[in-house]
Structures are given as structure tokens and as C-alpha cells.
Amino acid sequence: MMVRHASSRRGTSLVGILVSMVIIMVLSVILLTSLNKATTGAGNPVAGTVRSFQDELYLGALYQSMAVAATDRRTEGFIMPSAVARSGDDRLNTTANLFSLMVMQRYTPPKQLISGNEYSPVVDEDLDYDFTRYDPSADAWWDPGFTADLRSGSNVSFAHVPLCFNRRDYWAWADSRVPIIGNRGPANGEDDPSSYTYGRAGVWGGHLLHGDGHIVFVDSFVPSGLSYRNASGEWVQDNLFAEEDGIEGLDAILAFTRSIDLKDGPELQWD
């Protein structure tokens, strides 16, 4: 009894520290945005701007929230719809379900899911998230009204690694190998200034959050140090926004997952 009691106190202390860090990050973003909005504007994805710094803070706060979730649930990986629903069905692990679950579990507010550099007209904050939809007895774990479709409407800006097949293994706490969440990029990692991910200045750049919590800003679809081993056993540079290793591969991909087919793989989405 005494050992368990001592362990519980340590766990509470860790959660308290992480939650405090999240609060500080969010308050810093609000302050900086209020002071600098008039001069920096949105849709300017380059390093050093206030809105890009806002993205870094949002991703950092999101990571801390995910770490709290992992601590609460005593899991090695981050929160995942299929695990929370206790179904083991990876088809549940879509972008909409993932972030709606995070909001429902109070691990992140809807505002924190919108990039400071968001430029797409179909992406906007969910201002009326329905927390009353939560009903585990009816197998209802998140608000299905939360959307993540880059064609018709989305309540989240950030892309993530597909949570199925081999790439699901990257969704692990303290795994520094590849980015797991980050700013969106153009379809298939091909240069496309017409993509909303380029912003008003006609350039692309974005922050990448890794499983160990470190965040980097890059302005290339094939950032230095990111590679994967192809079918021939060779290590090759990895394009962040291209499926280069097949549906069950190990290359890094950041995209929206609109749906998942257990045979044909995920339906990925870019803009």
C-alpha cells in the first residue's frame, strides 16, 4: 500500500508539471499574437515570424498534452482512437477521430489545433464542439461533428503520421526517428506554389514535432537527416509528404488520413 501511494504522488507531480507547461505555452501564444498580429499577419510560413513561433508553441503544448495522456493511461504510445475505443480496429484511426478524441479527453482545446499560418479557407476552429456526445456505454468516444477533410472542411491544421500498418510504430512516446505531427505540405511532396500550405508569400516552411518532443523548422520536403531503407536495403532521403515505400512502408509521411482500408491502406489527403 505504501509503495503504491508513493508512486501515485510522483505521477501526480509529473502531470501537474506538464499541465503547467501547457498553460504557460498557450498564454505566451495569446500574448504574442495580440502584440504582433497587426504587423506579421497569417500565412507567412518562414522561420522567425510570430505566427511561426505560435505554431512551435502549439505543437509543443500538443506534445505535452499527449505526454500527459500517455502518463494517465500508462501506455508506451500516444493516445489513439482504436486503443481508447478498445476495439483494436485501425480503421478508427483517422485524422478527424484522432484530434476529436484529444479534444473530448480535454488534452487539447480546439484553438490549439489551428496553425497560426493557416491559409486554407476550409480550415477553421471548431467553436461548438459537442462534449455531450461522450458515452462509452454506447461506444461513443468523440464528437463525430469534428471534421478533418481538406476538401470540404477541417477543424485541424496539422498533419500526422498514418496510424496503421508499420508507420503506426512511430506513434510512440520518446521516439525521435521521424516527425509524427507537423505543418501540412503539398500533395506527394511536389513543388506546388498554388497549395494553401505555401501561404501568401508563395514559399513553404513548417515545424515538425518528433516523438521525443523535439521540434524543428524546415523549408525542404526532404529535410537533412531524414531517410529510410528501401526495398534494396539502401538508405535514401525521405520526402515528408510522399508515400515512397508502399502502403505498409516505413518512410515518414505527414498527411491527413481521411479513411483507412485494412487491405488497400489509408486514404491520404494533402492540399
Q: What is the strand tally?
A: 10
**What are the secondary-structure elements, in order, as H or E?**
HHHHEEEEEEEEEE
The figure for the number of domains is 1
Strand content: 5-15%
How much helix, percentage-wise, in residues? 25-40%
Distance between the termini: 54 Å
Task: Tell me what you see in this structure.
This protein is an alpha+beta fold and 271 residues long. The protein has one domain (2-269). Helix content is 28%, strand content 13%. The protein has helices spanning 2-40, 50-73, 81-84, 95-104; strands at 148-149, 153-154, 159-160, 179-182, 206-210, 215-218, 227-229, 235-237, 256-261, 265-269. The protein has a four-stranded antiparallel beta sheet, covered by helices on one side. A hairpin with a 3-residue loop joins strand 1 (148-149) and strand 2 (153-154).
Short description:
It contains 4 helices and 10 strands. The protein has helices spanning about 1-40, 50-75, 80-85, 95-105; strands spanning about 150, 155, 160, 180, 205-210, 215-220, 225-230, 235, 255-260, 265-270. The relative contact order is 0.14.
Question: Can you tag this structure with a few keywords?
Answer:
28% helix, 13% strand, alpha+beta, disordered N terminus
Secondary structure elements and their pairing?
Blueprint: H1 2-40, H2 50-73, H3 81-84, H4 95-104, E1 148-149, E2 153-154, E3 159-160, E4 179-182, E5 206-210, E6 215-218, E7 227-229, E8 235-237, E9 256-261, E10 265-269
Antiparallel strand pairs: 1-2, 3-4, 4-5, 5-6, 7-8, 9-10
